[in-house]
Amino acid sequence: MESNQMVDYATGHDGLNTPRDVLFVQLIYSSTLAFAGIVLLARVAQIGHAYLRYIVCSGATEKQQSVWSITESSLWVRIKSHLLYAPLFGKRHNREIQLSSAMNMGTLPSRFQSLLIFGYILSQIIYCCDLNYQNDTPAVIAELRGRSGTLATLNIVPLVLFATRNNPLIPLLRISFDSYNLFHRWLGRIAAIESIIHMAAWAVNTVREANTAALAQHLAETPSYAWGMVATAVMGFFILHSLSPVRHAFYETFLCIHQAGAFLIILGIYLHLDMHSLPQKPWIQWVILIWSAERCTRLLWLVFLNVSRRHGMTKLRVEALPGEACRLTFFLPRHYPVPAGSHFFAYIPQLSWWMSHPFSAAWTETSGTSRPKSIQSFTTDVKSLTLENQSSPFNHTAVTLVVAARQGMTRALYTRAMSSPDETFTTTGFLEGPYSSHAVNMASYGTAILFSGGVGITHHLLFIRDLLLRAAAGRAATRSITLVWAVRSMDSVRWVLEYIQEILQMPNAEAVLTIMLFVSKPRSPGEMRSAGGVIRTFAGRCNPTTVLEEIIPRRIGATVVSVCGPGALGDDVREAARRQVDRGVSVDFVEEAFTW
């Protein structure tokens, strides 16, 4: 009799505590929806506050904006400084933990992110451990099998959603893709461990009922168990495969394996649930729907943005730049507006048919603007790229990206350009996007302080252009913009020199804009001679604390501090901004990061 019970505990529903499983699923649903609702309300309040500030300050004098320059609530000061903007500990957040020049252990989550991750892990442990220990051991193991399998399957839904580029929660909650990708990685680890527990619990009861040979026989003769084993094995492999040293050292290979493995996991779980007619099957159907819909959306948008019956496909010009970088100019066959702060995923079939990489949009030329000189000077080979007669207005959008040569595709691009005549070549390329985290309304701040490190300048150029245009038209609160750019050498300045020159010619640029250029390794003292006016040059590393100490006392209205660059710079700027927040200064901190 006991043997028959064990058989049921191993393969049937005996021992499962379905009402308890349903209760915990409902708890996860309700707690997740409650948290999302709180975040949504907070975002609505934040957007409303920013919009009110924008309306009031757009036509206000500098003195009238002063009421927005301080934070009256000491509680809000503490929340921002010690929770929302705080690293886990110390000041390290996005600075990578280096094992060697080629390998790193990734970055640390922020304090708020860590609390969310820890809280969710703790809840999953509690749910898995809340078993009826008064039952016999096989029954307890069977209950653990059901509980861990249910939780693992449920976690697959947000796991897949958070990995998608078109995740609707990004614009709704205004949380960046970088943050969702962090949660994606942790959900993956949780689901993998729960799947292993589920498989182990089944295996233990199967062996207790019979022997190891019976376990092997089940896997060989029962497709549902075999597919469950495939899914679990791949998820277990992903725990090691997705570790930061492996992920970053071989990123393009990692992506290919990861996507193929994800397909096997979803297929394996679906077949496992379908063959047993289990109630968790609709969750995986939702996963398949989310994954398929997102991929179809991306494909359709890719075709819409890059293919035109009248003007053909997107063309790409790649130029090698000093300082081991490339400038990529995509000539879209249609006009499409690109918001400031956007990034695109670039596809270059000549280098890879399926790989895409994210880059910030450094500059755009859109309908109604004249072609820049760099485009007007094209020779016959490149005339096809402009898609229109040289003398006509530029009626299509050109998007420029600046890419530092590192490894993989970026290094191949640079090498290919360097070996081409005039260090330039043309090919077919495609853009997917634009994407944005929709972090803040930059035009609602009287003072904008933008820190850029190296190629991170690309994130801020369009913001500066947009703010200057809005300020000149009286449609922005912005009265002061400071661009702080840290570079290794003056070679980096040539990457975007023509765009900076265009910005300097804009209305009110001299009155509103200041550029602080920090060169850590200048070739000669003469190279560092400031031209005066808007641009100030400094030899040495940028100290964000010193910069903010200089700018904040003469701020106008509310202040936004934005940073895009290496993790070490981001951490230094974060620390400096938190010091100002602690003093009651109305400072909002924004970081654009690609840590995945």
Automatic annotation (TrEMBL):
Entry's family note: Belongs to the ferric reductase (FRE) family.
InterPro entries associated with the record: FAD-bd_8 (IPR013112), FAD-bd_FR_type (IPR017927), Fe3_Rdtase_TM_dom (IPR013130), Fe_red_NAD-bd_6 (IPR013121), Ferric/Cupric_Reductase (IPR051410), FNR_nucleotide-bd (IPR039261)
Name the record gives this protein: FAD-binding FR-type domain-containing protein
Subcellular location field: Membrane
Species lineage: Eukaryota, Fungi, Dikarya, Ascomycota, Pezizomycotina
GO cellular component, one term: plasma membrane
TM ranges: 23-45, 186-204, 224-243, 250-271, 283-307
GO molecular function (one): ferric-chelate reductase activity
Pfam families, A to Z: FAD_binding_8 (PF08022), Ferric_reduct (PF01794), NAD_binding_6 (PF08030)
Keyword Zinc part of the UniProt annotation: no
Natural source organism: Aspergillus viridinutans
Residues of the FAD-binding FR-type domain: 308-441
UniProt entry tagged with the keyword Cytoplasm: no
A GO BP annotation: copper ion import
Membrane topology: Multi-pass membrane protein
Chief location of this protein within or outside the cell: membrane
Keywords recorded for this protein, A-Z: Electron transport, Ion transport, Membrane, Oxidoreductase, Transmembrane, Transmembrane helix, Transport
